[in-house]
Design brief:
2 strands, mainly alpha, 5 helices, globular, two-stranded antiparallel ribbon
């Protein structure tokens, strides 16, 4: 379904003539619309309006896919970047065979003043680290961020 939404978004932007707008102003405008849509999700959540939450989520995806389209039109390999980032995100869950990571991760966050909790996800055979206060997923000790610079044309990379 996401692939169909992506295609419909590309068609919408192509018809509107906005898919090929590649200057900084177009990117900033797309960002501002994205922020507005995310705010609408927040407002709908506060109002407990599930219909508006769904509408906001879909609108956010459409705007984000429009930005994806603009980046592809600028020569960015968004599919490769998505694959690299997805794999890197999954590497935040070390295998249960790497129990030495548990203590090191807990200590790393303790030194930063963050209380971390660890759970085992048996079906996926991995550990999950969370910030106890916020529930946010935490990166394990030794986590390395992915380099996606190979997905961006050199003329757009900042040294």
């Amino acid at each position: 379904m996401i692939e169909q939404l992506k295609q419909d978004t590309y068609t919408f932007n192509t018809i509107a003539g906005t898919g090929d707008e590649l200057d900084d102003t177009a990117f900033i405008q797309q960002y501002e619309v994205l922020v507005e849509e995310v705010k609408e999700i927040g407002d709908a959540l506060v109002a407990s309006n599930l219909v508006e939450v769904v509408d906001g989520v879909i609108d956010t995806l459409v705007v984000a896919l429009g930005l994806w389209q603009k980046l592809e039109n600028k020569g960015v390999d968004m599919n490769k970047a998505a694959e690299l980032i997805a794999a890197n995100n999954l590497s935040k869950y070390p295998s249960l065979t790497k129990s030495e990571v548990v203590d090191a991760t807990i200590e790393m966050y303790k030194a930063k003043g963050i209380e971390a909790e660890v759970t085992s996800n048996i079906p996926y055979h991995c550990y999950v680290f969370r910030n106890t206060a916020t529930g946010k997923i935490l990166k394990p000790y030794g986590f390395e961020s992915v380099d996606i610079s190979s997905c961006v044309p050199e003329e757009f990379q900042i040294e």
